From TrEMBL:
Its main location: membrane. GO terms for biological process: phosphoenolpyruvate-dependent sugar phosphotransferase system. InterPro entries: Bacterial_PTS_Sugar_Transport (IPR050864), PTS_EIIB-like_sf (IPR036095), PTS_EIIB_2 (IPR013011), PTS_EIIB_2/3 (IPR003501), PTS_EIIC (IPR003352), PTS_EIIC_2 (IPR013014), PTS_IIB_fruc (IPR003353), PTS_IIC_fruc (IPR006327). This is PTS system fructose subfamily transporter subunit IIC. The lineage of its organism: Bacteria, Bacillati, Bacillota, Clostridia, Neomoorellales.
Amino acid sequence: MKKILAVTACPTGIAHTYMAAEALKKAAEEKNIEIKVETRGAVGVENALTEEDIAEAHAIIIAADTDVDEGRFRGKPVVKASVGEAIKNPGKLLDEALDKKPTSQDYIAEIQKTKAERTAQRTGVYKHLMNGVSYMIPLVAAGGLIIAISFIFGIEAFKEEGTLAAALMDIGGGSAFALMVPVLAGFIAYSIAEKPGLAPGLVGGMLASKIGAGFLGGIIAGFIAGYIAKWLKDAIKLPKNLEGLKPILIIPFLGTLATGLLMIYVVGGPVKAIMDGLTKWLSGLTGANAVILGLILGAMMAFDMGGPVNKAAYTFAVGLLGSEIYGPMAAVMAAGMTPPLGLWLATLLAPKKYTPEEREAGKAAAALGISFITEGAIPFAAADPFRVIPAIMVGSAVTGALSMLFGATLRAPHGGIFVLLIPHAVGNLFMYAVSIIIGTIVTAILVNLLKRPIDVNKV
């Protein structure tokens, strides 16, 4: 029996990574194929592939939207796909992997092939951005929650030196948040140019923080550093015995110098002005403007349920946490929870409009919804997109608008209802919960109004 290996990884490492892994395992079981899947999620690498696994494998499937080290698969046929493709068509990927023939063991040929494949993969701006965001999120989560805990001692308690509140603020705000933008920039650059891009990216991000260019400056610094490092890597040709100096000395030195000078003399000032204007506008948002922003962010969260539009809204809100603007984050998380919660409620309110499988899926969607995993709505949307997607977008838009209208704030970028239990993590907690409940009800009512009764003869 041929053995297939797989690696799954999505930007946030919370839902799609594991959904793709399960889909591949299930399809392999149905086809009687031996498979081992390594997941590279937010908690790190699980079920890691060993050298023995790789040696025994017929082919490897890489279902990833972030960078995966492919060097260890040298000499093995590789099938590449997005995690979304693995969730939708796992059987097709397995068939493609089985049809692969052993590749040449010629080292140079393999290196050239790997370089060509990596070059082709690294053209996606979205992929590089999401790679940076995925490394930044743990810092934002840890920093935001530790700051919230410091407020238990009083909103101003951290100002008194030597106290526990001051220590917590130093950990959360002074350290974790301070690393946020450098890490974002560093891992955008790493995604583009691998390790040689890391130092220029980190330094560019640090300069963005110092200048006051915020997360927007960090994103720009990451792309500048990444593409400069990649260009240097491709352009500089050295004798073989000096080649080792490129990634550890020449590229970091030249890349960091160029990125730093560009950030200080060209990019930093204008981006700081933009960020100052954006911060001032968002800080003063009230009434209709706040509602409109909440409507837009909410609708974006439900539009593609974990796709690029959803991630754009999420990245915008996460980035603003570093500028101490917490309203959009509250709107985004609330709006991301209501699609699966609303669908769960819909199956309870009108069970006859859903198949037994959909009613069971509704229970799972409830668990995913309270955990802020919007992807829990995908099975319903895939089965009936023209009715479900508009309904959940309206429900999420209402949720986002209400959250902004009520002035709710959120200091953590994830966690669902579990974050609500942490003191001071959520501002205006009661009305925030009301926003989520109303959005859930609106979603459920709209879905049930649009849904047609099921044909009992087909059940």
